[in-house]
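Entry 14. Ran structure prediction on the chain below.
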Amino acid sequence: MLNSLIFQIKGQNVMLDSDLAKLYETDTKKLKQQVRRNIDRFPEDFMFELSESEKKQLLLQESRLSNLKFSYAPIMAFSEQGVAMLSSVLHSKRAIYANIEIMRAFVSYRAMMIENKELRNEIIRLDKKINNSFKFLLRKIDALTPVLTQPPRKTVGFKRKDQP
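Output, structure tokens:
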């Protein structure tokens, strides 16, 4: 379930502030407040705010985020390290438990991406093998083609005067 909350933005796997707030059972406003109070703990590779174009693209991709369409506050995106850092600024039991589950989700998401890459490479390898086999068969068929082609036969039967 948590894998569906992970997005790839700016080449990073990230989770959005609104999703994290729900998982931590807090308001998005309070989560953003804590981050801004401790902004030194969140460098650009831990957390960044989405630009308007990135926000629009994300909202087009994910219909469940349509409630963010009219939000005036910029959306914060947290990388795996940023989510881990959130546990140092949010101290509730729920935040600690949710953080552990989120870390597990990032690990399984990474494993899934690696597995998909291996599967894609295997498909490409098989495709090349099939293409080579198919080309070999086509060459053999082309070699047989002169043997198979015979001169056209003379038609049998009567011809009408109006036919050539």
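Residues 1 and 127 are 33 Å apart (CA to CA). Will compare against last week's run tomorrow.
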